[in-house]
Amino acid sequence: TCSEIILRQEVLKDGFHRDLLIKVKFGESIEDLQTCRLLIKQDIPAGLFVDPYELASLRERNITEAVMVSENFDIEAPNYLSKESEVLIYARQDSQCIDCFQAFLPVHYRYHRPHSHDGETSIVVNHPDLLMFCDQGEGCRCFLRVRKE
């Protein structure tokens, strides 16, 4: 049986350059999360972008393990000329929560068309897909896939 999985996404910082923090808390169904790896597949809406060069730099400094999946990606394009993109992120176990993983992803706002309204634009970041692999020893491996609906 599967227990509850709690997914929380937070956008940190203000302005055009922000950080997306993804936290995942698992219930009691997985006994030893120390043997597990959690891969997060996050779709990035056209109004945002992730800089692949920044991700490479963060990987080199061991700050985050993330890679762009999308090809032909233009970080300079405004949102009305952009497409949704996709990022894979390996989450790390949270040192303050035994049943938790977290991942950090820097995101940047794209320029939008001018409009005469209040000057604010909303961008929706959907829940990611979660893929987990656990090596339980003695040839026993556990896979978990949670897809957004």
Automatic annotation (TrEMBL):
It holds the Pfam family PIG-X. It is a single-pass membrane protein. It is found in: Endoplasmic reticulum membrane. Pathway: Glycolipid biosynthesis; glycosylphosphatidylinositol-anchor biosynthesis. GO terms for biological process: GPI anchor biosynthetic process. The keyword Transmembrane applies. Keywords: Endoplasmic reticulum, Glycoprotein, GPI-anchor biosynthesis, Membrane, Transmembrane, Transmembrane helix. InterPro entries: PIG-X/PBN1 (IPR013233), PIGX (IPR040039). GO terms for cellular component: endoplasmic reticulum membrane. The keyword Phosphoprotein does not apply. PANTHER family: PHOSPHATIDYLINOSITOL-GLYCAN BIOSYNTHESIS CLASS X PROTEIN. Belongs to the PIGX family. This is Phosphatidylinositol-glycan biosynthesis class X protein. It comes from Colobus angolensis palliatus.
